[in-house]
Amino acid sequence: MGGRHPETGVFEGSVHRLPVRVYYEDTDTAGIVYYANWLRFLERGRTEYIRALGVRQSDLLTGDDWRAFAVRRVEVDYLVPARLDDALVVETWVEEARGASLVMGQQVTRDGRTLIGARVRVACIDAAGKPRRIDPEVRAALVAQGGSAPGPGE
């Protein structure tokens, strides 16, 4: 599990790093990343973090043991704007893993400078939208990769 997968980013210790580029579609008329589009970058970071652990979320959505991860809460600090064509890195780590939820820390950087920081609570749910314990194999992979990491902007 983990390791180097160019399409899924790279783990460096407990932090997953995913390179992303700012495209025209991500920006407003001034060429600055539109505030809501930062959430897309964060989503890609969380998705690729899970994928790099060897977990395909599409596999969780099949069979009698259907589970999905749903964002329950997002706290974002917008610190510095990003612009068209910027090369960014989405950094993601697990701050807390509970039975049916995760708190993930994230930040997006450019040349090592933090542009935004976020804390995201993700709930594991069943097909009816009710809380469901995280699959034991997924939880084990998260805990094995986990560890403390710097918070946004630190």
From TrEMBL:
Domain Thioesterase: 31-115
Gene3D superfamilies recorded: Hotdog Thioesterase
Pfam families xref list: 4HBT
Keywords from the UniProt entry: Hydrolase
GO MF assignments: fatty acyl-CoA hydrolase activity
Family: Belongs to the 4-hydroxybenzoyl-CoA thioesterase family.
Protein name per its UniProtKB record: Tol-pal system-associated acyl-CoA thioesterase
Species in which this protein is naturally found: Futiania mangrovi
